[in-house]
Specification:
Two copies of one chain form a homodimer. By secondary structure, chain A is α+β, with helices and mostly antiparallel strands. Chain A has five helices and three strands; from the N terminus they run ααβααββα. The first copy, chain A, has a single domain, classed as Orthogonal Bundle (Arc Repressor Mutant, subunit A). Chain A has a three-stranded antiparallel beta sheet with strand order 1-3-2. In chain A, a hairpin with a 2-residue loop joins β2 and β3. The radius of gyration of chain A is 16 Å and the shape is elongated. The two termini of chain A are 23 Å apart. In chain A, 34% of the residues are buried. The structure holds a DNA duplex.
Chain lengths: 111, 111
Amino acid sequence: METKTVVTALAALAHESRLGVFRALVQAGPAGLAAGRIGELTGIAPSSLSFHLKELAHAGLVSSRQAGRFVIYSARFDAMNGLLAYLTENCCGGEPCCPSSLNASGKDQAS
Amino acid sequence: METKTVVTALAALAHESRLGVFRALVQAGPAGLAAGRIGELTGIAPSSLSFHLKELAHAGLVSSRQAGRFVIYSARFDAMNGLLAYLTENCCGGEPCCPSSLNASGKDQAS
DNA sequence: CCAACATTTCAACTATCCTTGAAATATGGA
DNA sequence: TCCATATTTCAAGGATAGTTGAAATGTTGG
């Protein structure tokens, strides 16, 4: 994953509204949610929501498909996996950051 | 980890300069790097670097200590762990994103 | 075709971010 | 003390992000 892609993805998630939207889409799973439903769940105004959804789509974190007169958005789990992989590799020393066992104390290998 | 904290941390990393700084600090390990050395490694102008370091510190992702006339910055691995834990739990469905066992190189389970 | 619904686009405005260079602060050594 | 080094602060400027409401687009069913 390229640095530029990572920065774009991070910027897309670095906003309360968009993080909320993405969380809702993750919860919804591959089935996704219609734009209007996302608006109901998050309380974001339609035009603002459309702006944020475009931002997330541009970052590759969500995809959309037309279904009747609805537009269904869904989270792109592969992109999120890639982002987490990058952060784990490049920003956490490689291994010690898997939250399953969680050490997180502060002592690990030097450079 | 609170949503607001997460957004702040994501925003701090969502900039090419700051992501580069943070990566350098992660590579340096707990020993950290002097501000000037970070500037050398990243090519960021001093005042701009200071701005970005303050941003990272404010987000809790780095800490600083004075050493003679140098200021040594180091990555806060615990904060990064917390961020990754949040993203894994809330933005990846909970389980399928932990890169611990698997490779994490480039290919992971297909969609 | 027309009407109702779902979503997006547009323009205007405010707010915030980032960069730059100069000046300020702080520390160590001669 | 005085000077050099290391870092931060400040103010000014341009660039970008976000919100709002109105208008436009697209879709379905009567």
